Amino acid sequence: MAARDKQLAPPAKKQQVHRPNKIDRPEVDYVNRAAEGFLQIYYECMDGPQRDANIAELYRDTSVLIWNGETVNGAQQIKEFYAKMPQSKHEIQSWDCHPVPGTNPTAILVTVSGIVLHGEMPPKMPQTKKHGVLHRIFSQSFVLTPEPKPMIQPGAEAGQEADRYFIRADTMRFVG
User: Fold this and answer.
1) Which intervals hold domain NTF2 (predicted)?
2) What are phi and psi for residue 152, nearest 5 degrees?
3) In the predicted model, what is the mean pLDDT of residues 58-64?
């Protein structure tokens, strides 16, 4: 038994596990407010009568949309893609957001789940697929990136305006 014990390797030292940096509460609150405001604007644009014109303002030439597996690149192509879609009505069931670690200024990851209707809209959200409306459960994720701020001229006073975000990446999938 003693010979066997000598052949065993010594026990490995425990390695210190590095925990992620704690995110300051003010940053979490800021990201939460920014995401909530974005979602209100986004879904109002998506469900509005001028969807293709309004929604394009939230994307840039570098933006990517993946809609149920179909990839669309750039604001103009995204605008054209949405122009072909029937009228919609989104009902958000839940959403969450997080600052993206390592980004400065802070990018935001937003996840959404809810119900969407496509087609001629009834007065209220129906419980069945009547009225020629397609009732679907969706999951959508966004990466929001702050717009680059203009350079401040030397001697000019910096303003206190909030960051303006655009959609860097948008993935939407029907899940039910």
Assistant:
1) 34-174
2) -90, 130
3) 96
**Cα–Cα distance measured from residue 129 to residue 126, given in angstroms and rounded to the nearest whole number:** 7
What's the domain count of the chain?
A: 1
Answer whether residue 158 is part of any domain. Answer: no
> Which residues have CB under 8 Å from 107's CB, separation 6+?
99, 100, 143, 144, 145, 146, 168
Across 114-124, average pLDDT: 78
Residue 160 — pLDDT band, cuts 50, 70, 90? Answer: very low
Domain that residue 98 falls in: 24-122+129-147+165-174
In a domain, 63, yes or no: yes
| Structural domain includes residue 4 | no
Instruction: Give the tens place of pLDDT for each residue, 16-50.
Output: 655 555 556 678 888 999 999 999 999 999 999 88
18 within a domain of the structure (yes/no):
no
| Higher-confidence position of 156 and 62 | 62
